[in-house]
Amino acid sequence: MKVKLCQGISCLFQMALLNASIYTLQAQTPFSDVFTEGSLNPAWTLEEPNPDSSYQMTGSSLQITASWNDGGSDLYSGTDYSATRVLQPVNPALDWIIETGFSFSPGNNYQGAGILLADTNGIFTNDLQFSRVAERAYYPDAGGSVIRSEGSYVGYSSGNSWMRIEKIGTNYIGWFSPDGVNWTNNGTITDTNIWNYFGVFVIRYPWDGAQINSVAGFNYFDATVMTPLSADINYIPISLAPVANAVNARIINCPTGMQNFAGVPFNLLPATANNSWDAIGSTAAGDSSVQTMNLPVQIYGATAGNMLINLSWGDEGKVVPATFTCSDGSTYTFNLAAGAELRDWLANVYVNDISDYAVASDVFNGTSVANPGQAARIDMQTIPLPASFATKVLTNINVTDYGPTGNNDESYSSSIGAQRAFVYGVTVATTPVFLNVSQAPGGAVVSWNSNYSNYGLQTCTNLLTGPWTAFSGTPFLVGNQFYVTNAITNSCQFFRLFYSY
């Protein structure tokens, strides 16, 4: 929560904005880009599976080259998923309009570029994970040089293209334009898939045998939110540093740092040291003892726990309890069951399906470190907490693994970590945190509820550049409120509460 204080107190107001540690759904606010910087905005995710493909920032555009070599760069189950794409996260609950303009002159079989919707910003393993929703292409089966935007391919010969997609609930409306001014409605579809990312892509597959790349230069990507953002959920990503006992070496290019999965932010530790908790991380060979992750937190008003949990191997019947404990001693345990909310992290091995989609979702798909030819994945579990937790302090989150079961060969079980659970990330959803401000002689008073004792007050004079620094004054407690007084000495001053682990 941030509060802005302006000189003269007459323009004193509150701003319900995102801060660096408490994430509302605004963490998924789409952003626009004109690609004029010297490097790609780090908020984009670049996926470039074909090593012969490339991209560059030209100063006026994002130029992407999709290579014909090394098996081509396609997005199709009959060939490969190696097309270069640049994606940003978006809350799937939002309605939006996205638009892009780019230069591209395809003249060979299966060259294409356009707008992409996806359920992951990682490696694709099947056609259901993405939608080439709008595309300028050379596609002989559709008549050669064509364009489409949520409709059928139509003939199109220009080297410049503009595309627009509008999302209204589950309806997607598409337009294309030869000049960015005059638009043609190309079609509307109903799509109930949940798309957590959107962006642009370029493909080239050499069905014709020609050694020709696809090169597209994107001049801008414009994103406009059409529905208001929810301000009733705060997300607090929790560091696993206090309990991490293993380096995640399961998935090639597994994401690290601040990531968003299905609208929930996670702060994932780097893989240069222990970055995950694993039930086999502290055990010797053949050890099938009970292992428990005891993650300390200090969060008031928790409404749900979001965790990235998978099984090392996985077998039906495995149960992994997740227990949440409050400062008054009250607890809540949710039993995550294999085949319902849990499955192993490898495709095609034992537990492969999630049946309880109300709790679990598939949020990251990649490739196995042990077997690069095999897919691997990470799932997220969302566990709603009792209503009574909204007025309590959550102090601990435990995940318990009872050891390998279902295989009596001890050496076999220990060698593969049979049915052992691992945790890759934890985020707690909470009720909103509000800062209050009131006028005082010569300044203002900022206050917040004393239940948020583990939050520190920070201030800055520029939201864009910062820096945020700790407020120098000491809060004083009156009743159930912390207060600080502030003399207005700057033209603008911003405040936020920052969660301290």
Can you put this structure into words, describing what you see?
There is one protein chain. Strands 3-6-15-8-9-10-11 form a seven-stranded antiparallel β-sheet, with no helix packed on it. Strands 4-5-16-7-12-13-14 form a seven-stranded antiparallel β-sheet, with no helix packed on it. The protein is mainly β and 501 residues long. Mean pLDDT is 83; it is low at 1-27 and 405-417. The protein folds into three domains: 2-22 and 433-499, no CATH class; 29-225, Jelly Rolls (Sandwich); 241-426, Jelly Rolls. 1% of the residues lie in helices and 47% in strands. Strand 13 (171-177) and strand 14 form a beta hairpin. The chain is built from one helix and 36 strands.
Summarize this, please?
The chain is mainly β and 501 residues long. Helices cover 1% and strands 47% of the residues. It has one helix at 410-416, and strands at residues 2-6, 13-15, 45-47, 54-57, 62-66, 84-89, 96-103, 111-118, 130-139, 144-149, 154-155, 160-168, 171-177, 184-190, 197-204, 214-225, 234-238, 251-252, 257-261, 264-268, 277-278, 291-300, 302-311, 319-326, 331-337, 360-368, 375-384, 393-401, 421-430, 436-440, 443-449, 455-460, 469-470, 476-478, 481-487, 492-499.
